[in-house]
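FAQ: What does the model actually see?

It sees only this:
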Amino acid sequence: MKRLLALTLAFGLMVFSATAVQANDEEACQALDELSTALDEMATGVHNDELSPEDVQEDVDALKDMAKAIKDGTLTAKVNKISAMLNSRNQEGFVNAVDELVDYIDAEVEENCP
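And it is asked to produce this:
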C-alpha cells in the first residue's frame, strides 16, 4: 500500500485544504480521486485477506498525520475510527470505516470539483 502512503504524503496537506479544493484546483481534485481509489483498494485488500493489519499500519499512521495537520474534525474522526478498528483487529469495522472516509472524500470532490 505504498501507493496510498505516497499519495497521502505528497498531496495530503495541500489536497484536502478547503482553499485548494474550493478553487477547483484540478490537481487537487485528481489527487483526491486517486486517494479515494487507493483507500478503496486498501479496504478491498483487507476484506479479501490480501492485506494484513501490519500491511496497512504505515498508511493508517500517515492518514492520522494528514488529518492532524489539516485540522478537519470530521476527517480526524473518520481516520481515528479507521485506526481504532485496525488496532482492535476488527476487519469488518475497518473496511466500513475506510468506506466512510471514501464517501467523505467523494462528497468533497463532488461538491467542490468541476
